[in-house]
Amino acid sequence: MSETTTGRVPVTITVNGQPCTREIEPRLLLVEFLRRELGLTGTHIGCDTSFCGACTVILDGDAVKSCTLLAVQADGSEVITVEGLEGEEGLHPLQQAFSEHHGLQCGYCTPGMLMSSLALLAENPDPGIEEIRKRLGGNVCRCTGYQNIIRAVQAAARALREE
Amino acid sequence: MYPAPFRYHRPATLEDAMALLARLGDGARPLAGGQSLLPILKLRMDEPTDLVDIARIPGMRHIDGQGESIRIGALATHARIAVSEVASRFPIVQDCATGIADAQVRARGTIGGSVSTADPSCDWPTMLQVLDAEVACRGPRGERVVGIRDFFRDAYTTALEEGELVTEIRFRAPPAGSGGAYLGFKKAAPAYPAATVGVHLGLADGQVCRQARLVLGCAGPRPVQSREAEQELEGKDLNRDNLRRAAEAIISCSDPPSDSRGSAAFKRTMLHSLFMRAAEIAIRRARGETVKGGTLYV
Predict the structure, then answer these.
(1) Rounded to an integer, what distance in angstroms lies between the CA atom of residue B119 and that of residue B38?
(2) pLDDT tops 70 at residue A3
(3) Which fold has domain B178-297?
(4) ipTM
(5) What residue segments make up the domains of chain B, in order of their start?
(6) Chain B partners of A52 at a C-beta cutoff of 8 Å?
């Protein structure tokens, strides 16, 4: 990237394994890059104030809030969104478990819940309830009361361990 | 919500970043993890002309926890500090690092960013003042080291001069026979805390206070510290009456604002109860016990 830029800047972000290059305004948020530039609307904008976690994606291995990052900050990085979960064999074990254990009602928070859970299980394949609660603390659900979400994460952890 | 338009720069080295910040002047801001700055920009509390992205500059991510002089690079994230040797050696550091916001914010936010933003609700400023930390700054005129009490001038206002960046946080390892705790209360993980308290106590004979450091956060424009309150404890028995007197002395110096996180009266009550708990945990840790601290939320 040039040292000083005034207008649009080029960025390349690898999203779900696909390198994507766009010329963007530096103030474009990562979540808007995903939704508007790439049409990946699975990542939701909830509170837009870094609170609710609906916009959570994986950036270079970490769960992050994409409403609180500029797309230029992710230049050269790898991003995984909820669209990247499903494989050729169907739903990801986390998606399957959320479905089976009623880990969602309206579904608005679900992409963020899934991505935070994905980061957690990558780090700890067998988390206890307390750790799951802690790691999902930055993801707000207004429907479920969280109990089924926690059950779903535990079930997904079991399924992934047996894979 | 969008930030106002700005020019974006990504210098490769610290020297380039300092030169750029000095040249761009008043309207430029450094950007590290962005976890304080981005919300400020989106709310248009600040509208810089230029952002200088320092996040990829090498050599500022270290967390050196061995020996007597502890050094943490400005770009070390809360998440990495939370699992570092510094955190396991000094539980008060772990209390602070694990209590900041949520996992997503901790993965990106940096200690240098927290200190430089000087938001009255940020956790590091309060906790680091408990440890008498120092802030290493580099600018066009070289490096200088500022004591943490002199670093915070007002809410969102620090001793940093034009073109200067925080490069490292330093503190002396607290002596054996001492212990600290940092406690806070917030409504939910991603919320800013309503009240925070840091306590560090040096013990003689397991019960008499040799040295006390008491600091309150979210309780005024800067971290609140009171020598008078500390002297209520130093040289005295650490019984509940003396602790209560110290709590009352420091809380009388605080000025917590009434806002969405609670009324001033609620926050004072909360500060008192957090203080008593933090002191108890600090004493038990000084005696060698393993006790959980950190920020409480529902």
Answers:
(1) 13
(2) no
(3) Enolase-like; domain 1 (3.30.390)
(4) 0.95
(5) 7-53, 63-172, 178-297
(6) 190
